[in-house]
Design brief:
three-stranded antiparallel beta sheet, 43% helix, binds pyridoxal-5'-phosphate
Amino acid sequence: MRAYFDHNATTPPDPAVTQAVVRALAEDFGNASSVHHFGQRAKAVLDEARSAVAELIGGEPTEIVFTSGGTESDNLALRGAAEAAEPGGRRHIITTSIEHEAVLNTVKALGKRGWTSTLLPVDASGLVSPAALASTITRDTAIVSVMHANNEIGTIQPIADLAAIAHEHGAVFHTDAVQSVAKIPVSVKALGIDLLTLSAHKFNGPKGAGALWIRRGTRVVSTITGGKHERNRRGGTENVPGIAGMGIAARLARTKLSTGTASLAALRDRLEAGILASVQGTVVNGARESRVANTTNISFDGVEAESLLIALDLEGFAVSTGSACSSGTLEPSHVLRAMGLPSHRTQNSIRFSLGAGNTEAEVDALLAKLPATVGKLRSLVRR
Ligand SMILES: Cc1ncc(COP(=O)(O)O)c(C=O)c1O
């Protein structure tokens, strides 16, 4: 048996997505910029996907820019908004200490071209406070970027309140919604934001396809210069198969969201409660209320997270020690560190992220193995 509990790293493509990718690759191979029949077929695929992605987040199709994924969308949002702001003289960006590296390292790179930055702290439950933003923002602040849901602990930030503060000060607001889109209903209008990043492979779509939603009127300078693709906002021939798959994934996600995420939350809660009850010295990291339904992050006292990950993998269970990008290193999670957790808890935490394909039987199989696996690792450490 192999059970996959790492859906925040990536998700398996839905069979309908795979079909759409293959069909677009084989049949809709035209260049969407060509005026002939083949080009127009490819353009029709893009148009349909653009509508599907826009509907998933409550935006307009013309506000969607297709990219190669979440990382590129974060880059386009921050570098593009920064370049647009520079002539006005503002050069300060605010983000948080728990962002994905796609945002944190882009903010760092902006520092090399004269931008100053502030990383908002989070409280012990991993939440950013609007009061902290209000006391930090200045007339020099051009951009505020706060992720919607965190990839390691799943906590959902008060984006609408934060965006309102940014706008009161004339700053543009971006949210990295890679981990919230398709997990909770996302409406760009209700959130009152200007820029939103999403990535197809996090919601059963293909890798290498994503989008940046740019509210009409928001100034963003293209970072990939080239042809006039994507209304001059991202040069390069569009990845028609990937985008076709993302469109189908967006349509499926919308349907699934309309029936609710209660069963996924019940499965996650079964796993979480089972672990807390059967393994001594365990604690859930992050807010348990304001959290996406699929994620739980748990520290196991006296166990090194990497060892537990490997032991579980050998037993057929795929989990993560936090963000996929930092696995393979023994670096403590920057998210848990920012929450002020003691060092032993930042180094012994495991992220379980569930998805539509997981079953009660898989959860129960993991619960049946986990106490003995943890016990064995603890006895090795004690020797
Ligand atoms: C919050 C967040 N932002 C951005 C990304 C990067 O997305 P992509 O893998 O599509 O580049 C990820 C992926 O792990 C993520 O979790």
